[in-house]
Amino acid sequence: MPMPGDTHGTNVPAPSAGSDSGSIWPGHGQSNAAVRLLVNLEHFLLYIVALALLVIGAAVLVVSGASAILRHAPWTERLVTSLEGILLFLIIIEIFVTILTHARGEHIQLEFFIVIGVIALVRHILSIVVRLTIPMSPAAGHQQLWDLAVDAGAAFVLVAALAIARWSARRSDVA
User: Fold this and answer.
1) Which residues span the domain enclosing 165?
2) Which pTM was predicted?
3) Looking at residue 54, what is its pLDDT?
4) What angle is formed at CA 139 by the lines to CA 134 and CA 141, rounded to 5 degrees?
5) Among 15, 41, 82, 121, which is least packed, fewest CB within 10 Å?
6) Residues 87/119, Cβ–Cβ less than 8 Å
């Protein structure tokens, strides 16, 4: 497929001497400035979102820690609530790292999203386990056990996908 400026076998005229040679489209000198403006705006917004995620992550960590210390509940419930808060913080930080990676112009790797999925599933599994400790009807307990089994299966699939992604990355680095 011919690209702009490619004159091999096409009828696309070569850029004239008076045109903007820095433009990717012949005769469109303003497009570079517009593209640069949009790229700069995108980076600005990405850094704002990254900063917001950092603040939200810090708030989640502080609230989780304060809740674990100040709440008058059994230690097991406080421990599980603290672990859920820490896992939510890790999810937020993984998204933060992914956004910074994209803002730096690097390729976003699949592994970040797989790790986010695994952490989210582990967090959901913990909340199901906590709910299973509360007395409920047999039908509700059965549904919770099915949710637990589905989440465990999904976590296994994601961990296997992460292993395959890392294995294939190593093989492509060697080759």
Assistant:
1) 31-174
2) 0.62
3) 93
4) 30
5) 41
6) yes
Q: What's the rounded Cα separation, in Å, for the pair 10 and 137?
A: 73
Cα–Cα distance measured from residue 115 to residue 121, given in angstroms and rounded to the nearest whole number = 10
**Euclidean distance between CA atoms 64 and 56, whole angstroms:** 12
> How is residue 141 written in tokens?
């307990």
Structural domain total, the chain: 1
**Cβ atoms 114, 149 nearer than 8 A:** no
Q: What value does the CA radius of gyration of the chain take, rounded to a whole number of Å?
A: 25
Assess if residue 104 is contained within a domain.
yes
For 41, counting Cβ atoms within 10 Å of its Cβ (0-12 exposed, 13-18 middle, 19+ buried), the class is exposed
Tokens 């296997």 belong to residue = 160
Q: What is the pLDDT of residues 9-62, one digit of tens each?
A: 444 444 444 444 444 555 555 678 888 898 889 889 989 999 999 999 999 999
- Distance (Å, whole) CA 103 – CA 96: 11
Locate the DSSP E strands across 13-81: none
5-14, 27-36, 92-101, 148-157: which has the highest mean pLDDT? 148-157
